[in-house]
């Protein structure tokens, strides 16, 4: 990932780079956290995740996305980034619902976790209040924004969070949503109207944005005729300002100022 970040920044310095910040690629079971025997080691998980975030930021990442869903990790990452001089790099913890919609990507990438792995911290689709509480807790730890996945199935949580915080909220329409919506052979009506693929995928972007989200991240890309909402850094939400003074979390108030591209 470090090589990829540097390649992007060398080619297009003004392009914002968002990463996934997780340990799942380094554990035998594919879990996002470390264990000692049967016990989940939250302290070591947070420390190593923070180290990984600093490495990504040093390579040029603008936003690091914390995917482990473990309490305390966001605070550890924010502190490590600040101490390393990366105060302008934003943190974006993920709110992940338990779902089979991620499995297609994992199978393709040969990254299917061992049975029951990764699930202790996933949120049950029947507990939207847990997702809201978890998101607010991440903001209190110093998160700048939140990513919600699967995007189309978390709109109710997004709406609940929007009335509680001014932080950017980014739905992620995952691979399983895309494969179920995209026609195997996208067709266009004879009259030149909107293609089947566009008509199916547009709600993935429009629906969450109507509830107050930042631009949706999705595998389909911006549907034809439905470009992403304009914003700084190529459509990404404003990130945190390069300022040494900051209070953790943002429950209300305007989003932070846009960050200048790295050069």
Automatic annotation (TrEMBL):
Q: Which family does it belong to?
A: Belongs to the ALAD family.
| Stretches with biased composition (Polar residues) | 193-205
Q: Where is the composition biased (Low complexity)?
A: 242-252
Identification of the protein by name: Delta-aminolevulinic acid dehydratase
**Reaction equation(s) it catalyzes:** 2 5-aminolevulinate = porphobilinogen + 2 H2O + H(+)
Q: Record the organism.
A: Kitasatospora xanthocidica
What does the record give as its pathway?
Porphyrin-containing compound metabolism; protoporphyrin-IX biosynthesis; coproporphyrinogen-III from 5-aminolevulinate: step 1/4
User: Lineage of the source organism?
Assistant: Bacteria, Bacillati, Actinomycetota, Actinomycetes, Kitasatosporales
Top EC group? lyase
Assembly, in brief, is: Homooctamer.
Q: Which SUPFAM superfamilies match?
A: Aldolase
Say which domain of life the source belongs to: Bacteria
Quote the cellular component terms of the Gene Ontology held in the record.
Answer: cytosol
Q: Which GO terms describe its biological process?
A: protoporphyrinogen IX biosynthetic process
